[in-house]
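ok, trying the design again with the full structure, not the truncated one.
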């Protein structure tokens, strides 16, 4: 079996360089599937993204919704899903596409161009610096801790299921609430600065994880406060070592 996470995981970069994002994410996934077929591998678990839903107002997101991707990144992930489904039907495979919502946890590099909001917020809060928020901060995200994502991959591998599944926490948090919660956990006041919203960013995102729960027993163990506490502890220890 194969778990396929390789990608250019940046909405912004996909808007600046659509061709490379398509080459790596869409064509790259096709190459993985062709290699898997050649080697007789029965299942590929593909890391997709909730970005494929776009800005549809309906919440929570369910897998049966019509995709409305707003970025080249989202289109590339949707294309990967379509290839996985096609190989299931054409070549008797049991491929799974996991639509990750906002994954966070230790070891994310806050300086990377791919860095999500949480590592950047934590690093700035630990240094006493302002947190940068794009837009008004009322946009919401379904944040899921990395250990829960790991368990989702393992359960999907071990099951006989195939198809597309949401992997999230089933709860949403606004960016403003996130900044406040990080400050609360650090027991310090945080300062924020607001910039223009970024092109291609989705306004709101919330997962319905019922399908994954029924298919392979997916059940997140971390709520946002527990996950943030574990993540902050890791960055704080890393900072002491550095």
């Amino acid at each position: 079996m194969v778990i396929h996470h390789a990608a250019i995981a940046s909405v912004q970069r996909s808007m600046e360089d659509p061709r490379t994002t398509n080459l790596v994410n869409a064509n790259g996934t096709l190459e993985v599937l062709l290699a898997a077929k050649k080697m007789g591998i029965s299942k590929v678990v593909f890391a997709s993204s909730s970005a494929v839903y776009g800005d549809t107002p309906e919440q929570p997101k369910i897998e049966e919704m019509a995709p409305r991707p707003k970025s080249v990144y989202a289109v590339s992930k949707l294309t990967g899903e379509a290839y996985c489904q096609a190989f299931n039907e054409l070549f008797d495979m049991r491929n799974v596409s996991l639509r990750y919502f906002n994954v966070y946890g230790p070891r994310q590099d806050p300086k990377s161009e791919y860095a999500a909001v949480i590592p950047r917020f934590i690093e700035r809060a630990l240094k006493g610096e302002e947190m940068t928020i794009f837009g008004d901060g009322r946009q919401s995200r379904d944040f899921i801790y990395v250990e829960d994502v790991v368990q989702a991959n393992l359960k999907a591998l071990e099951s006989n299921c195939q198809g597309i599944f949401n992997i999230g926490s089933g709860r949403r948090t606004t960016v403003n609430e996130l900044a406040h919660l990080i400050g609360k956990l650090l027991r310090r006041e945080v300062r924020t600065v607001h910039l223009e919203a970024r092109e291609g960013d989705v306004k709101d995102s919330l997962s319905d994880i019922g399908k994954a729960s029924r298919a392979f027993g997916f059940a997140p163990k971390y709520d946002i406060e527990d996950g943030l506490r574990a993540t902050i502890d890791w960055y704080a220890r890393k900072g002491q070592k550095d």
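Keeping the full-length input from now on. The radius of gyration is 18 Å.
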